[in-house]
Amino acid sequence: GESVGLHLPTLSVQEGDNSIINCAYSNSASDYFIWYKQESGKGPQFIIDIRSNMDKRQGQRVTVLLNKTVKHLSLQIAATQPGDSAVYFCAEKSGANNLFFGTGTRLTVIP
Amino acid sequence: DTAVSQTPKYLVTQMGNDKSIKCEQNLGHDTMYWYKQDSKKFLKIMFSYNNKELIINETVPNRFSPKSPDKAHLNLHINSLELGDSAVYFCASLIEGGTQYFGPGTRLLVL
């Protein structure tokens, strides 16, 4: 099956700074990508998505960048807040509606 | 209203027992999923159901069996529980476009 990997398993940032979480995917046929946030004791929560015909998408304080050439996905969080502390997953979809998740990055925001 | 709900939230049981985890979604979606999340936070898909038909079944032991009495429910039954089954199990529902909406999870501990 596909593999989705993350460059860093943990990331610590100062409150107010910007955070960048990276993800590498392996299936060049993947056409849809999602970032999820998982807080302690909760299920993954949708943050933002992007389709393969786009290279950038912005939400509220979050931006996803897609580089299909190198099969790389990143999540940028502006002005990181303590409430952003969580594990972040990227997921890719190819073909049928099956999502394959990366290993996750734990983001810790230092007050 | 909770879109995807799971019961129980916590489940502690002895090896060899048979247990079920229930999932309900009130979103009217056609496809539901079960995921297993291990202690390292890795999320792996186990099953998906579309209109009561099993679509995918990854390399999951046949001790695990999904049961869908209707479109709103996808329950997970586990026979002869083993220590390695200890994990967090998430139910998810497919939103049009490819995004999946996750439930809060069931934390299973096998002693």
Distance between the termini of chain A: 40 Å
* Helix percent band of chain B: under 10%
Largest sheet of chain A: 6 strands, mixed
The class by helix and strand makeup of chain B works out as: mainly beta
Beta-strand residue fraction of chain A:
over 45%
Low-confidence stretches of chain A: none
Mean model confidence by pLDDT of chain B: 91
Whole-Å distance between the termini of chain B?
Answer: 34 Å
Secondary-structure element order of chain B, as H and E? EEEEEEEEEEE
Show unreliable segments of chain B. none
Radius of gyration of chain A: 13 Å
Q: Biggest protein-protein interface?
A: A-B, 23 and 24 residues
Helix content of chain A: under 10%
Order of helices and strands of chain A: EEEEEEEEEEE
What oligomeric state do the depicted chains represent?
heterodimer
Beta-strand residue fraction of chain B:
over 45%
Describe this structure in words.
Chain A is mostly beta strands. Helix content of chain A is 0%, strand content 54%. Chain A has no helices and 11 strands. Chain A has strands at residues 4-5, 10-14, 19-25, 32-38, 45-51, 56-58, 62-67, 72-77, 86-93, 99-101, 105-110. In chain A, strands 2, 4, 5, 9, 10 and 11 form a 6-stranded mixed sheet that branches. A 5-stranded antiparallel sheet of chain A has the order 1-3-8-7-6, with no helix packed on it. With 111 residues, chain B is mainly β. Chain B has strands at 4-7, 10-13, 19-25, 31-37, 43-50, 53-57, 64-70, 73-78, 87-94, 100-102, 106-110. In chain B, the strands form 2 sheets. In chain B, strands 2, 4, 5, 6, 9, 10 and 11 form a 7-stranded mixed sheet that branches. In chain B, strand 5 (43-50) and strand 6 (53-57) form a beta hairpin. The model of chain B has no long low-confidence stretch (mean pLDDT 91). Chains A and B meet through strand 4, strand 5, strand 9 and strand 10 of A and strand 5, strand 9 and strand 10 of B.
